Each structure stands twice: as structure tokens, then as C-alpha cells.
Amino acid sequence: MLHLTERIVNESPHPMPFMWGHHPAFRPPFLGPSCRIDVGARAGVTGSDPTAAGRLRPDDAFSWPFARSRSGEQVDLRIVPPIDTGVADWVCLSGFDEGWYAVTDQERRVGIGMAWDPGMFPYLWYWQVWGGLPGYPWYGRHYNYALEPWTSWPDAGLERAIANGTAMVLPGHGSIETSLVAVAYTGLREVTSISRAGDVR
Q1: Overall pTM > 0.85
Q2: Considering only Cβ atoms within 10 Å of each terminal Cβ, which end of the chain, N or C, has fewer?
Q3: What's the N-to-C CA distance of the chain in angstroms?
Q4: Are the C-beta atoms of residues 18 and 170 closer than 8 Å to each other?
Q5: Cα separations (Å) of 102 from 30, 34, 158?
Q6: Pairing of β 43-46 and β 87-94
Q7: 116 Cβ contact list (under 8 Å, min separation 6)
Q8: What gap in Å lies between CA 89 and CA 166, rounded to an integer?
């Protein structure tokens, strides 16, 4: 287990809106089509600025894990497709009673997950590039994903988070502290929860 304790401080006397998040990303040799993604979320929304390689319907609310494709088909976001799928999407997950996610290689029965305070980070950005993004700088060779606990959404910057009411505000000379845990585990094919103490079930 890796325990992270973080603290941010507003050193000015004025209230400061902010976004706070994390960008743990994964790629081969761990990542592959034998992996399964489990999260504690109940709901999600797809991005409003899809790439040309996007397979999901933009600005579309859904219940985890099933989103809709641009053609109206059901897409199970727990499944990691192969690199030759050639797609790239961003979704924002929410509705956490407990903040956690897990990625498990079902063949090797090894995995990695995170847990956090959903009161501090109520959103999980799920950036997925399964061989998409054909132009510079990856030219379709990019095969990874990131599952990112965040205070706010979307990934388009602070101004949009202020506009949609998800930006947090730190009072003048105020501070906030929180903790997260990352944990590696073995012997499982899927995960139903990870506690903030690092217990994987």
C-alpha cells in the first residue's frame, strides 16, 4: 500500500476557486484486454468535446457501467478493448458512497486500485485511449487509461468548473488536508470495494 497525505494552502487573504485532482495512468505490460475496471460510482456523463476517434455519444448521462455509443449501442466501460479498437474518450463518473476503483488482470489475478474521500473528490475522470488519437504526437500508438479522482469537472479548465458550480473555493489563508491510498493485490478476478485503509474485497 502507498498512503498519500496532501494539503493545499491559500496564502492570499482572498477566497480562491480551484480544481484539485490526480492523474494516475496505466499502460502495458499491465494493461490489456484481460483487464477489468471496477469503480464505486453509480452514474456518469460523457465528454462534450469528443475527439474524432470517440466512440461514445457526447454529453450523454448514463448509469455505470453502461454508456451509449454514437450509434446507440451499449458499451460496457468495465471492459478494456484491444489497441486496434482505435478509439479515445473521456467520461466523468460520480455518485460515490465510497470513493474507490480497481483494475484487475483477470488472467494473472493481479490488480491495482485506489481509495479516497468522496466528500473531497466526488468525481472520477476516466480518460481512455484504446489506440485512438491518430495524429501528433501518438499516431494511434497510445494505449492507456487514467482514472483520476477530482474535486470538479470537466477536464476543460477552471472557468468551466466555476460555471457549472463544481469548483471548490478555499477561503483566504485557509487550508484543506486529505488522504488517499493506492494498493496492489493478488488472487481476485473482480473487486467490489476498497476501503481507505486499503482493504480490498
Answers
A1: yes
A2: C
A3: 15
A4: yes
A5: 13, 14, 28
A6: antiparallel
A7: 99, 100, 149, 178, 179, 180, 181, 196
A8: 21
